[in-house]
Amino acid sequence: MIGDRMSQISSGSETGCSYPNRSKSADLKRNITYLVVSFVFAIVYQVPGWPNIFEDINGYPMVDRAVYENLLLTRNLVIDYIHDFTPIMYFTFEWSWHSLLAYLNRVVGLSADQIFFLITTFILWRFSFDVLTKIGWQYLPLLINPLVVNFAFSQLRTALAIALISFVWRGQRGIGLTVVIYILATTIHTAMIIFLICHIASHLFKNNNYFNFLALASIGAAIAIAIGPLREMILSTINDRRTDYLDMASSAAYLSFWILLLLFHGVIFKFRNRIMSLDARYSITILSIVAINILTGGYSTRFIAASFPSLLISMKDLGGNRSRMIFSIFIPYTIILWMYWFRILG
């Protein structure tokens, strides 16, 4: 902003009305550049063929991706055998996701791989655009992470819903469109209700005091309990079909970096007179879910992957030496994750 104003002053223009036009032109050029760079990054990201690499390493395809492909090939989407949906069933049976797959495959004529390519491109574009616009291009390579790979190439339903919500959750659109997007995203994946709660909390508890840190952390803890010990009871109450889940818990060692990041944020909230960004406040809630999941056996990695841009932004938001320290730990941690992904370790 200061740079824009200085360039306006030094331009020597005598007409005041030319300054806003020049500023708008610069903003438009910058935004177009961000869009192009993030889109190119999303395409280049896919060049290695991560699903094929995963299958070569493990001897089986990415699990969720294979499930969606099988639903298309066998014509076993929800809309193929349920024709009368009650209002709640549009959410619990994720009608929009199945309708989208059916439309792209049966009407547009795209193959499963082509559909997945489009969805993955959209997801990676949104992730990279957020990182690029908030903290800069130099942090884009940090998106090349096993958690993001698994999320964007396999966990397509959750990832698509998160990518849609990224257009509105920071309050960058009007309330009407925001509500519509959240409803649409929840009919893609009902877990978006959880992220909605986290997003609302990050907007409400915005003052820089320790009470707000505790409030954000407590909301995350409550969510972890709800999706852990209380999950079966809650899903049964709303007649959700998925009351049984495989054990997807991660070890404390695997999640150790994220617990450390939560502690860093806690220290800043308590001892520093510093206003945290919206992404940092949101990250505190997500990281609190992760911390409690260690005790309850909840599924943490999907929360981390879904919030990955905000987590990176929150690391930068720590500021100064704290930010450099956390990134210096994050990079070797990421290398270790890759070693597990490639089965070099474990």
Automatic annotation (TrEMBL):
Q: Does the keyword Membrane apply?
A: yes
UniProtKB keywords: Membrane, Transmembrane, Transmembrane helix
Q: DNA-binding among the record's keywords? A: no
Q: Where are the transmembrane segments?
A: 32-50, 107-127, 147-169, 175-198, 210-231, 251-271, 283-305, 325-342
Q: What is this protein called?
A: EpsG family protein
Q: Which organism is it from?
A: Caenibius tardaugens NBRC 16725
